[in-house]
Specification:
Elements lengths: L4 E2 L7 H8 L16 E3 L5 E3 H10 L6 E3 L6 E3 L12 H12 L16 E4 L4 E4 H11 L4 E4 H101 L4 H19 L14 H14 L14 E4 L8 E7 L15 E7 L2 E3 L1 E5 L4 E7 L4 E9 L2 E2 L5 E5 L16 E6 L5 E5 L4 E5 L5 E5 L9 E7 L3 E6 L4 E6 L4 E6 L8 E4 L5 E4 L3 E5 L5 E6 L5 E6 L5 E5 L2 E5 L5 E5 L4 H4 L5 E9 L4 E8 L4 E8 L2 E5 L1
GO molecular function: ubiquitin protein ligase activity; zinc ion binding
Family: Belongs to the TRIM/RBCC family.
GO cellular component, one term: nucleoplasm
Length: 631
């Protein structure tokens, strides 16, 4: 039977307790720590110091003694007087406790004033014992009931504890804000220093250019002045010479006339006209220069600030996380009022750790208040993503994400198929799905919308196993039951078809860049030209063929029930691919290749394989000789 649990306590009336234990029985005054300090007599009774002084003063005994006022025993007074009696330790201790103890006022029940209130922790109800039967039993069957005074004390302790924690948090916040102010002042000092340094450099460049231009003007002026000065000296010399000859009058008139005639032309060219000119012009576009300087100065020193509040910012996982591919996160920033920010530029730091290892991450600023964080993990584990802005963590940092080695599909075609065998994608991103169970080729868009269905005789019998896209909107189809290779158009009309007698159990079809048909049989690869004429074949010894596809540089990739082999375009064996990682190689695992494709852009070979031992399908990605297995 379920009953309530009543926690019983002893409540003591403070006045009664003080009258019995903390009051001097002689003078009926309450003990204190001064004149009425409690003293312990040899008879074990306690009397205040004031009463002992009065009793000792009235004593008629010749010896230093007094009688206990309670039991009348004779007590010898110590040499130091009554003050030397030992203190009543218990009474003094209780007195200290009572003086320090806060007197809680416990409300009484409004319905039953004489009853003490109790508190039910389960129901969060306050009641008295008289109310218990009518209230608690209707709420629940099991209760922990304590006196309301105890509950008040507990709650007050909790409130005090939380208040102290809040006070500590506020002190830490004060310290943090103070540090932020100091950091702000330091950043401003650095910016001011940078501004002064930059403008000082600009001023130096302008001043140096001014000096260079002035110097070039003066140099050019001096060159012109020198030429003109030399011409003046030549004119002066010629003038003196002519004046001297005129003064002497010794020249013959005829010879002087001839001399003047010969000199006439040279004077006109060399002396009468300045050999240099005074033209100097400073080629400047002052208006354009001022505009350019104004524009450059306006663009320079744009101050970037941010209202981002790290405590409101969040990080979230964008898509399912898996190994060996980019795992994307999105960091959203908000201001202190919780409004989304619309600009970027925040100094954001992101670290990703699992265990003691740190993985590199890439942060892309989307310039709209959000940041893309990209992590590529190679080991399945739980990763801790720590994001800080301005050196402070965001709201849900560190963010824990579990990265698995199993890759879920990003999307799937919402169409109904019966035994789909092959699929191809054309340049228009249309999917061609060989739906063998329904004897058709279904063409759908990426969103799953149906474009059309192709029906043809070569697809009958639910035995079509190979499909390849050809140029000119044509398709190649392989049927294992009829052992036929057919070319059809988008209407399903058969353009060309052959039945090859050497086929045993054809299972796959591929077409290379030269238009050759690669037909995978159970133990042999057949090669036909673009007109479906047989060219050659080559065996794959010791293994059963499971698929075929085009490799790089027209090489031939052949999947088997025990791995992947590479042949050149002429059918010569090149090498085998080791599809097992190191940890499974030693366990003797065997891998069946179900499909293979080579990417001409990245030069990677992606192989769909089945681990026979674990009955597990995985993807093997080959980087030349290095192979990584991804689930």
């Amino acid at each position: 039977m379920n009953t309530s649990t009543l926690v019983e306590t002893v409540n003591i009336n403070l006045e009664d307790f003080s009258d019995v234990f903390l009051t001097c029985s002689t003078c009926l005054f309450t003990y204190d720590q001064n004149q009425r300090k409690a003293k312990l007599l040899p008879c074990s009774h306690s009397v205040c110091l004031s009463c002992l002084n009065q009793i000792a003063a009235l004593s008629q005994s010749e010896t230093a003694s007094l009688r206990c006022p309670l039991c009348r025993d004779v007590c010898v007074i110590p040499a130091g007087g009554v003050a030397s009696f030992p203190g009543a330790f218990i009474i003094n201790k209780l007195l200290d406790v009572m003086q320090k103890q806060r007197k809680d006022v416990v409300p009484s029940c409004a319905v039953h004033p004489s009853s003490e209130l109790s508190y039910c922790e389960c129901c969060d109800l306050v009641f008295c014992q008289s109310c218990q039967a009518s209230l608690i039993n209707k709420k629940c069957t099991q209760h922990t009931v304590i006196p309301f005074s105890i509950a008040l004390k507990r709650m007050s302790e909790i409130v005090v504890y939380k208040a102290k924690g809040r006070l500590k948090a506020l002190e830490q916040a004060h310290e943090t804000v103070t540090q932020e102010i100091e950091q702000l002042d330091q950043n401003v000092d650095k910016i001011l220093e940078q501004i002064n340094t930059t403008f000082q450099e600009v001023s130096s460049i302008v001043e140096n250019r001014r000096r260079d231009i002035i110097e070039s003007v003066r140099v050019r002026r001096d060159d012109k002045r020198k030429v003109l000065k030399d011409q003046i000296e030549a004119i002066t010399d010629e003038k003196k010479k002519l004046e001297k000859e005129l003064e002497s009058c010794q020249l013959d008139v005829r010879s002087m006339a001839r001399q003047l005639k010969s000199m006439e032309s040279s004077w006109d060219r060399q002396l009468t006209q300045p050999r240099e000119n005074a033209f100097l012009r400073l080629n400047t576009n002052s208006t354009q220069l001022v505009c350019d300087i104004h524009r450059s100065l306006a663009e320079f020193g744009t101050l970037s600030a941010s209202t981002t509040f790290p405590g409101e910012c969040t990080i979230s996982l964008v898509e399912p996380a898996a190994t060996h591919i980019d795992t994307k996160f999105l960091v959203k920033t908000f201001d202190v009022d919780g409004r989304s920010r619309t600009s970027g530029g925040d100094p954001i730091d992101v670290t990703a750790k699992h265990g003691n290892e740190t993985n590199s991450v890439t942060v892309n600023d989307l310039n709209n208040g959000t940041y893309e964080v990209i992590l590529r993990a190679s080991t399945p584990s739980e990763y801790s993503i720590t994001v800080t802005i301005f050196g402070r963590p965001i709201r849900n940092s560190p963010f824990t994400v579990k990265i698995d080695d199993r890759h879920p599909p990003r999307w799937q075609l919402p169409i109904e198929l019966l035994r789909p065998t092959k699929t191809h994608i054309d340049t228009n991103e249309l999917f061609y799905v060989l739906d063998s169970g329904n004897n058709r080729i279904r063409i759908v868009k990426e969103n799953g919308n149906l474009v059309s269905d192709i029906k043809s005789k070569c697809l009958d019998g639910q035995s079509a196993v190979g499909l390849s896209l050809l140029a000119g909107d044509e398709l190649a189809v392989l049927n294992w039951k009829t052992k036929a290779v057919s070319r059809i158009n988008m209407k399903g009309e058969v353009i060309q078809s052959i039945n090859f007698s050497e086929f045993k159990e054809p299972i796959d079809l591929a077409v290379d860049n030269r238009g050759r048909y690669l037909i995978a049989d159970s133990d042999k690869i057949f090669v036909f030209d673009s007109s479906l004429r047989p060219q050659f074949s080559f065996p794959v010894k010791g293994h059963r063929i499971t698929c075929v596809n085009l490799g790089l540089d027209d090489d031939i990739l052949v999947g088997t029930n025990d791995g992947l082999q590479l042949f050149d375009g002429a059918g010569r064996f090149l090498r085998s691919f080791d599809l097992a990682p190191n940890e499974t190689t030693q366990s003797g695992a065997r891998f069946i290749v179900n499909s293979v494709v080579a990417c001409p852009i990245t030069s990677k070979v992606i192989v769909g394989i089945t681990n026979v031992k674990l009955n597990k399908a995985v993807l093997a990605v080959s980087y030349s000789k290095l192979v990584k297995v991804e689930h």
